[in-house]
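Q: What would this chain look like folded?
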Amino acid sequence: MYSKITADMKKLLMMLCCSAITLGAAAQSFVTYTSSEGDYCRKGTAKAVGKSSGDVVLKADAGSPRQEFKSWGTCMNELDWDALNILSESDRNEILDIVFGQQDALSLGYTMGRITMNANDYSRSWYSCDEVDGDFQLRYFNIDRDRETTIPFIKETQKRCKDMVFWMSPWSPPSWMKINHHYAVQSSKYNDLDPKKDYLLYGDDDRSENEQVKPDPNKFPRRLATQDFFIQEPRYLQTYADCFCRFIDEYAKEGIPISMIMYQNEAYSYTAYPGCAWTSDGILRFNMEYLAPTLKRKHPEVALYLGTFNTNRLDHVDGLLSDSRMKDNIKGVGLQWEGRQILPQLHQKYPDYEYISSESECGWGAFGWGEAERTFFLMTDFIGNGCSRYTFWNCILTGGGVSPWGWRQSALVKVDSDNHTYTLCPEFYSVWHFAHFVRPGSRLLGFSSSEGKGVNAIAFLSPARKYVVIANNSSDEKKDISIAIGKKFLNISLDPHSMRTLVQK
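A: My prediction, written as structure tokens:
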């Protein structure tokens, strides 16, 4: 199922990639790369012809490009760093080279890193930059824990890509700034939060058309929090805004510039791991009255984006974005998980914002082909519907990918902690079919996405003005499709559960 990089594979792929970008080749000829489970990156050729032979799933016209794609990236998590350090130095460098390098035949060429202020669910344990209760002057604010793991990880990425950009969001404020005085939102066997405090999330309120009593199963979350878990007192709100700027300052001293921030990761996941629930009033109050003006005053070069939205409640998100203060304070919107479902409507109504996929879904710890197909669909759908950046979650994990809070997840690279070896998982190749060929500066030309067992296809114009077409078939039957390329057609026959990239010569 998995394959470690071999010298022969690297040599072969280098030859394939070089042949794919030769600029002097025939304009209607394509080099193809096809993958299926256990059989990756098979080389082939294709030509655009005058007639379609299958269903035309999309039209790609170089004269009508859509948004520019800017970057692929991942989150800089402590458990990723720990997994890397189980390996030998040569293997560790090999993984860093293919994930963040720009030249290797297998490189993903990530140019963006997501940083967490305070712990996230793939940190070793809970910590924050200031756990001293009542420290409104931030006398004890520090990034000492980051210097153990996150910053060394980032330094290695910067060696591979001198133009790395970074953005930041917290999972939870310091615990003393929350009404339950704990990093989590709800109690579980994986934390020590007093279960008596669980009722704080919903209280006894049954507003919103009685949804607290009879939730809508099609909405996420099924019930919205009825009060803010962040203490809504001015000195707490201002101190927290100051925390963001202090974090930016401390990272700048380490040679790590942060160019974008978001106020909260997944405000709609009411978690047993680090998290924080916010109401609409609290979101607007903190972002518009405290975080935005503080950022403008202390770090005007850093962009404020609203997110990360992991909810499909369009009316709720629309209500926030329609606030008259938004256009003067935020540059864009970050969406992940269920937020993807409302991306088309948001992009249509608010076209002037930049939209980014702030976190790809993280699988279920199988490290298998099913997760590769799911990620293929997500990349197609997020980017096709307007996202100009795509952020992955963990890039490398050990064993079953279990977090300290009991959540089993997947990654692109799996480490065997007993044998100190690694394998590239199927999901890695799914990402490679996109990231290796769709480089920053590429322009979207068109897409067609199908959630579940179906065909997904997307087309780009590269910075060198070459067509790049990517398609997969996640069904159990062979599919014949056509892609309109200008006045010609690429006729593609896709085996069941396969994916293909076509690169114009």
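The chain has two domains: 1-68+443-505, 69-440.
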